[in-house]
């Protein structure tokens, strides 16, 4: 029997963040440096606590903030993108179930409506742009 796919909320329960020493240059970091592998929960928490209403952050700024919090040289760019998508889709599910935007992960503050990620999200780029504009007023 086929297994039921995990929900976005279930995917949020990924392993805790951890540091890894790089064995080769990767993502702008050098061999031997410490790289953070974050988590969906940490990405969500960072957005909630560091990016206030009406403001936005780029994904590189998100990664820099996470790295600084852990004393790491950087954060894995690939996993950060995956974790941002998980946090975004889980928050979208909450919004669709009636949650207030002030009570969910404010993913629209980090996902550029013109980005490739925006095109993959169920909310779509138009909703992201609308939500950003709504917060600026």
Task: Identify the notable features of this structure and list them briefly.
single chain; mainly alpha; 3-stranded mixed beta sheet; globular
Kindly name the structural category: mainly alpha
Number of strands: 3
Rg (CA only): 15 Å
Indicate the overall shape. globular
- State the end-to-end CA separation: 51 Å
Strand content: 5-15%
**What about the largest sheet?**
3 strands, mixed
Discrete helix count: 6
How confident is the prediction overall: mean pLDDT?
A: 96
Helical proportion, percent range: 40-55%
Largest beta sheet: what is the strand line-up?
1-2-3
Low-confidence stretches: none
Spell the H/E element sequence: HEEHHEHHH
In short:
This protein is mainly alpha-helical. 47% of the residues lie in helices and 7% in strands. A 3-stranded mixed β-sheet has the order 1-2-3.
């Amino acid at each position: 029997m086929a297994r039921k796919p995990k929900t976005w909320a279930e995917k949020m329960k990924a392993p805790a963040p951890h540091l890894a020493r790089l064995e080769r240059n990767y993502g702008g970091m050098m061999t031997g440096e410490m790289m953070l592998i974050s988590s969906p929960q940490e990405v969500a928490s960072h957005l909630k606590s560091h990016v206030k209403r009406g403001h936005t952050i780029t994904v590189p700024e998100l990664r820099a903030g996470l790295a600084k919090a852990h004393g790491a040289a950087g954060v894995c760019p690939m996993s950060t993108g995956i974790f941002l998508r998980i946090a975004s889709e889980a928050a979208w599910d909450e919004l669709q179930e009636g949650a207030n935007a002030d009570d969910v992960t404010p993913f629209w503050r980090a996902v550029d409506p013109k980005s490739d990620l925006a095109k993959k999200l169920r909310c779509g780029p138009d909703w992201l742009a609308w939500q950003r504009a709504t917060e600026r007023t």
